[in-house]
Amino acid sequence: MQTFRSFVVSQPVREILSRRFLQTSSILNIKVGDRIPSVDLFEGAPDKKVNTSEFSKGKVVIFGVPGAFTPTCSNDHVPTFLKTADEIKKKGVSSIVCVAVNDPFVMSAWGKSLDPSAKIRFLADTTGAFAKALDLTLDLTAVLGNVRNKRFALVAENGVVKGINVEPDGAGLSCSRGTDILKLL
Length: 185
Prior knowledge:
The chain has one domain: Glutaredoxin (3-Layer(aba) Sandwich). 34% of the residues lie in helices and 25% in strands. The chain has helices at residues 11-21, 52-55, 71-90, 104-114, 129-134, 141-144, 178-184, and strands at 2-4, 7-9, 40-42, 49-51, 59-64, 95-100, 121-124, 137-139, 147-149, 152-157, 160-166. It has a five-stranded mixed sheet with strand order 7-6-5-10-11. The longest helix is centred in the middle third of the chain and has 20 residues, at 71-90. Residues 1-27 have low confidence and may be disordered.
């Protein structure tokens, strides 16, 4: 067994990851100047829909992660936004939103475990509709059971993308941290 991107995996799984996990499209549909697609996400429960157009009013930061409770997302990515949340909000950002292809109960529990003061909204993209609409999907079926988000962070103002960073391999952590988003504000 060897460690691969914070996962302990066997040789067959490592081979699948090398083929699927790190090979991503270089074409990005969502770009600066595009509108955030209108998609229903969920906050805390399946009956608590939040449309992306609702939280895209004003200036917002949206960041996507491959999965709740996964090592890099929990130990590194979300903490960078928690550390920079006050500074981000001082730049006129009304809301910081974390999105993952997970169910709303998992996202709620994950949010409470990492962010008890609720600086970040944790929203569930249950079917991956938002990730698909942004063209930011990553096939992690072999290790996480389904297609997930590529790791990204964007700034939107009144529903229009003003800046976006997408991890080159879809899963690393080199340009989508809280400190990186400060440079886009």
